[in-house]
Automatic annotation (TrEMBL):
UniProt protein name: Threonine ammonia-lyase
Family (UniProt): Belongs to the serine/threonine dehydratase family.
Record key words, sorted: Amino-acid biosynthesis, Branched-chain amino acid biosynthesis, Isoleucine biosynthesis, Lyase, Pyridoxal phosphate
Alphabetized InterPro entries for the sequence: ACT-like_dom_sf (IPR045865), ACT_dom (IPR002912), ACT_ThrD-II-like (IPR044561), Ser/Thr_Dehydratase (IPR050147), Ser/Thr_deHydtase_PyrdxlP-BS (IPR000634), Thr_deHydtase_catblc (IPR005789), TrpB-like_PALP (IPR001926), TrpB-like_PALP_sf (IPR036052)
PROSITE patterns assigned: ACT, DEHYDRATASE_SER_THR
Pfam families listed in its UniProt record: PALP
Record organism: Bdellovibrio svalbardensis
Superkingdom of the source species: Bacteria
Enzyme Commission identifier(s): 4.3.1.19
GO molecular-function term, one example from the UniProt record: threonine deaminase activity
Cofactor: pyridoxal 5'-phosphate
SUPFAM superfamilies linked: ACT-like, Tryptophan synthase beta subunit-like PLP-dependent enzymes
Catalytic activity: L-serine = pyruvate + NH4(+)
Taxonomic classification: Bacteria, Pseudomonadati, Bdellovibrionota, Bdellovibrionia, Bdellovibrionales
Pathways involved: Amino-acid biosynthesis; L-isoleucine biosynthesis; 2-oxobutanoate from L-threonine: step 1/1
Length: 401
């Protein structure tokens, strides 16, 4: 499979009147945090909420009339599904999308709203992919692969051209990796235009297949679901074809990040850049924040998608705030005597923390008859602030657990 810079330029002409040329914005707060001039490429504001629309529209636009008449089928955890659904609708083509049974409800609903038939099958993406292939054979559909397709890769690569048109002297671009279509297209475009620009790929440590392949580590082939907030890049088995043809040739480094690190990045993006990113969309920022990467003087972080499940937003915010020291949950054991709660809250007030919630527990296992456990949820300012509060509580005689 071959893709050239000329293919990416052709893709740009094909999709330019349909896609959003998304904003590329300098972030003062991220630049101060990371010690480099940081720019964000906001593909979370793309039509359908992710970069996937680019590749899907380019692919369907290049189908023959006969291929379009048979309808298309695709497999996706969510974003490719929406990209194919909208692209097919715009082209007047019937679309069937296979999604894992535990995919985001909001992404499945959005896919239907764009005009596709949704089939739920399999615990992980790989199983949904296998079922989509069986439907292709059974009904004669044209398969639209989420990443292993030259037209899809070329469509995603248009992001690389847009970035370097604005920042030709870019030193580094950080890109999330699921199947590898985005990083393959972007890396090919970037290296063709500015070979000195480093390309860094990021995967979830819950599904690190491509990172293992790139770093010459054993790839876990177990067929089990990877529970991660970065569901959009949770592909268990990496594509050797994508690795050999693109990632091994054009990518300089591949790292992994944890769900906690992604949650912290999501909260940072919400608070400081006023943008909403889903787990996979914030993975590149998580790597920039936590992996000590060589960013150079100018760095671009691709925010690849914003289709976050609203049911988990509050959990992600709370987790991110805790990791940043902005929210604290701690428990203490004290003697069950009048005035102890007052002494504890006074110590907290002295340290200028805000009490959000208090809970008494006198019956938990491990407590003596004259002891009580008190759980606090506090609004704090930093990890150091939390440590000062702990010391202040211990000074009252409380035992922190």
């Amino acid at each position: 499979m071959k893709v050239s810079l000329e293919d990416i330029k052709k893709a740009r002409e094909t999709i330019k009147d349909i896609i959003n040329t998304t904003e590329l914005s300098h972030s003062i707060s991220a630049s101060k945090l990371l010690g480099s001039e940081v720019y964000f490429k906001y593909e979370n504001t793309q039509r359908t909420g992710s970069f996937k629309f680019r590749g899907a529209f380019n692919k369907i636009s290049n189908l023959t009339a006969e291929e379009k008449s048979r309808g298309v089928v695709a497999s996706s955890a969510g974003n490719h599904a929406q990209g194919v659904a909208l692209s097919a609708t715009l082209a007047g083509v019937k679309a069937t999308i296979v999604m894992p049974v535990n995919c985001s409800i909001s992404k499945a609903s959005a896919t239907r709203s764009y005009g596709a038939e949704v089939v739920l099958k399999g615990e992980i993406y790989d199983e949904a992919y296998e079922h989509a292939q069986s439907l292709e054979k059974q009904f004669g559909y044209t398969f639209v692969h989420p990443y292993q397709d030259p037209f899809v890769i070329a469509g995603q690569g248009t992001i690389g051209i847009e970035i370097l048109e604005k920042i030709p002297d870019l030193d580094c671009v950080i890109v999330p990796i699921g199947g590898g279509g985005l990083i393959s297209g972007v890396a090919l475009a970037v290296k063709s235009i500015n070979p000195k620009c480093r390309v860094i790929g990021v995967q979830s440590d819950r599904s690190p297949g491509m990172a293992c392949l790139y770093n010459k580590q054993t790839v876990d082939q177990a067929k089990k679901r990877a529970a991660t907030i970065a569901d959009g890049i949770a592909i268990k088995n990496p594509s050797a074809l994508m690795y050999e043809n693109f990632i091994s040739k054009y990518v300089d480094e591949v790292v992994t990040v944890s769900d906690d690190e992604i949650a912290e990045a999501i909260v940072f993006l919400m608070e400081r850049t006023k943008t909403v990113a889903e787990g996979s969309g914030a993975a590149a920022m998580a790597a920039a924040m936590h992996r000590g990467l060589n960013l150079g003087k100018k760095c671009c972080v691709i925010i690849s998608g914003g289709n976050i499940d609203l049911n988990i937003v509050s959990k992600i915010i709370d987790r991110g705030q805790i990791l940043r020291g902005r929210l604290c949950e701690l428990s203490v054991i004290v003697d069950d005597l009048p005035g102890n709660l007052s002494r504890l809250t006074s110590a907290i007030a002295t340290e200028k923390a805000n009490v959000l919630e208090v809970r008494h527990d006198r019956v938990s296992q491990g407590l003596s008859l004259r002891e009580t456990r008190i759980d606090f949820t506090l609004e704090t300012t930093s990890i150091e602030h939390v440590e000062r509060i702990k010391r202040a509580l211990e000074a009252t005689g409380a035992k922190i657990i």
